[in-house]
């Protein structure tokens, strides 16, 4: 390996380690974001759901998650053999003690760490739909089951060489090819529109319906107890997302730079789109709206960060902000208690980002010079979005009903009314009484 190659590998390794660290930060940032949106009596439980998911998923990923997602022994193109690389066997060093090279040229163990953080944040996102009413133990069990049965298979199907992989150019041929010709239209999911946000948003919707509403839903206004905490969480999510999207270039190169700029462009535009929608609809542009708009923009650009220009990223983000702002109202129209707007932000914006890239992808989208192939890409993006919704929805429902019939989801009504923090964790977020005098 020449000096230039060594320097490139070292630079890419450093960037990917930094990106993995940034994505890991996103889960504590999510805890702040969700915690601030919760009521005072349930803020610790809400934050613990994110931290709990981090613990469960990180352990599982090292045992069988990497193998199920990126193993070479694919089972029907849906998931890989969980025992092939169980416990990261044969994934770190070779027989001579040298670090195994990964697909992107740097050591494979770095990519394992990077992908682990994606699995963690994807699972933690779901918790926002369940605020104030579920057992912590049930949530931990669900986290392990969901990441194993939903996330790992989707990661394999989209990124690991499975049914919906970027590398399967024949995917579109199945729909559009004729006379043996390949359409050569592969789906685009740069950093996780289907694998992360559509799957988590769909799971949130399914759980909100199966677990049921809070006792006060629709009867009392549940205001965020700490809006500065919400805004801090959103800011840290934005910071961490540069690792999420920029790291998905898998190198410290121009594509990573493009993803960085596109992420900023879409996020800023989405925040403005959300605030404009609020101002027009309600007469006020709120801090909660700004924070939520930031997250909606980050979600929308995730599948498209490497496939758009900065200008088309502005368009994608602005539309995503408007759609997500309108989408949070779906829970009131249809009567499901998505406590912290996971469906509106992650499912709606994730669907738009995944489908929107089919319209706006540089020189390939239907509206951006792709012609008939652009139309085909648009249809392919719709198909992969629907596949993710159906797959995540069905499997999540099976897991949720199984837990409901066995250990149960809900805390007692009295616990829900008095506050879940004290019952589940024997703690309160704020000491409003003062120290006991002995």
Automatic annotation (TrEMBL):
GO MF term set: ammonium channel activity
Stored SUPFAM superfamilies: Ammonium transporter (SSF111352)
Main location: membrane
Subcellular location as annotated: Cell membrane; Membrane
Pfam family, one: Ammonium_transp
Keywords recorded for this protein, A-Z: Ammonia transport, Membrane, Transmembrane, Transmembrane helix, Transport
UniProt keyword annotation of Transit peptide present: no
Domain Ammonium transporter AmtB-like: 14-430
Gene Ontology cellular component annotations, sorted alphabetically: plasma membrane
Membrane topology qualifier: Multi-pass membrane protein
Transmembrane segments: 14-34, 46-64, 112-131, 138-159, 190-212, 224-244, 256-276, 288-305, 311-330, 342-366, 378-403
Record-linked InterPro entries: Ammonium/urea_transptr (IPR029020), Ammonium_transpt (IPR001905), Ammonium_transpt_CS (IPR018047), NH4_transpt_AmtB-like_dom (IPR024041)
Family: Belongs to the ammonia transporter channel (TC 1.A.11.2) family.
Name of the protein: Ammonium transporter
Source species: Corynebacterium suranareeae
């Amino acid at each position: 390996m020449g000096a230039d190659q060594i320097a490139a590998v070292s630079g890419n390794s450093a960037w990917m380690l930094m990106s993995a660290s940034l994505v890991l930060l996103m889960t504590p940032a999510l805890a702040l974001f969700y915690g601030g949106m919760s009521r005072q009596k349930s803020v610790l439980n809400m934050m613990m759901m994110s931290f709990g998911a981090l613990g469960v998923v990180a352990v599982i990923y090292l045992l069988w998650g990497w193998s199920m997602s990126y193993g070479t022994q694919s089972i029907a193109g849906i998931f890989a053999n969980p025992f092939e690389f169980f416990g990261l066997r044969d994934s770190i060093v070779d027989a001579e003690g040298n670090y195994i090279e990964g697909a992107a040229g740097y050591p494979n163990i770095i990519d394992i760490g990077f992908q682990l953080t994606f699995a963690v944040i994807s699972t933690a996102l779901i918790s926002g739909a369940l605020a104030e009413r579920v057992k912590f133990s049930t949530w931990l069990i669900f986290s392990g089951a969901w990441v194993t049965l939903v996330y790992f298979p989707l990661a394999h199907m989209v990124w690991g060489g499975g049914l919906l992989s970027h590398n399967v150019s024949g995917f579109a041929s199945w729909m559009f090819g004729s006379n043996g010709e390949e359409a050569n239209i592969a789906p685009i999911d740069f950093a996780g529109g289907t694998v992360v946000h559509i799957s988590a948003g769909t799971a949130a919707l399914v759980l909100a319906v199966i677990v049921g509403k809070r006792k006060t839903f629709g009867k009392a206004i549940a205001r965020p107890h700490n809006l500065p905490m919400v805004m801090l969480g959103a800011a840290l999510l934005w910071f961490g997302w540069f690792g999420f999207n920029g790291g998905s270039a898998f190198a410290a190169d121009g594509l990573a730079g493009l993803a960085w700029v596109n992420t900023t462009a879409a996020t800023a535009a989405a925040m403005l789109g959300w605030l404009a929608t609020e101002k027009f609809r309600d007469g006020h542009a709120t801090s909660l709206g700004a924070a939520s708009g930031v997250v909606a923009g980050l979600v929308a650009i995730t599948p498209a960060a490497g496939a758009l220009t900065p200008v088309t990223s502005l368009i994608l983000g602005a539309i995503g902000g408007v759609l997500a702002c309108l989408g949070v109202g779906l829970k009131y129209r249809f009567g499901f208690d998505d406590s912290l707007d996971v469906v509106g932000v992650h499912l709606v914006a994730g669907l738009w980002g995944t489908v929107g890239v089919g319209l706006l992808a540089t020189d390939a989208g239907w509206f951006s010079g792709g012609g008939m192939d652009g139309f085909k890409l648009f249809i392919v993006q719709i198909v992969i979005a629907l596949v993710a919704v159906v797959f995540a929805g069905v499997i999540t429902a099976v897991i949720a009903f199984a837990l409901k019939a066995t250990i149960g989801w809900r805390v007692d009504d009295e616990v829900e009314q008095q506050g879940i923090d004290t019952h589940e964790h024997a703690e309160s977020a704020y000491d409003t009484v003062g120290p006991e005098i002995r």
